Model the fold of this input.
Amino acid sequence: MGTKISEIISILPADLQQALLQYGEFIALLARVIAENEEIKKTNVSQQEHILFIESEIKRLKDQLELDGHNSSKPPSTDKGRVKITSLRESTGRSPGGQKGHNGITLEQVPNPIIKLI
Done:
């Protein structure tokens, strides 16, 4: 079948032969452009789905950042921006409470305490 078309084309004038060759090249180029367009459409749909996923993830993370002790179950002590109260006194190095070696003083017990009822 290809030889019959070549025979017919060879009978045509040179300018028509050139036009047919250009037409064939144009059709091949058009087919490549259409194929590329379809690939771009598929990529575009995939990217749009990815963008929607990323936007929802950003919204979820922003909402999570906005949670604090007033609008969630988190304790207020975990709120960001909260200033921790620290003592300005310097440490003495002693342990807190009664110191070692100090016996302390207690009240003497009374054998019969006097209780006054009011």
Summary: The chain has a mean pLDDT of 85. The radius of gyration is 46 Å. Residues 14-65 form the longest helix (52 residues).
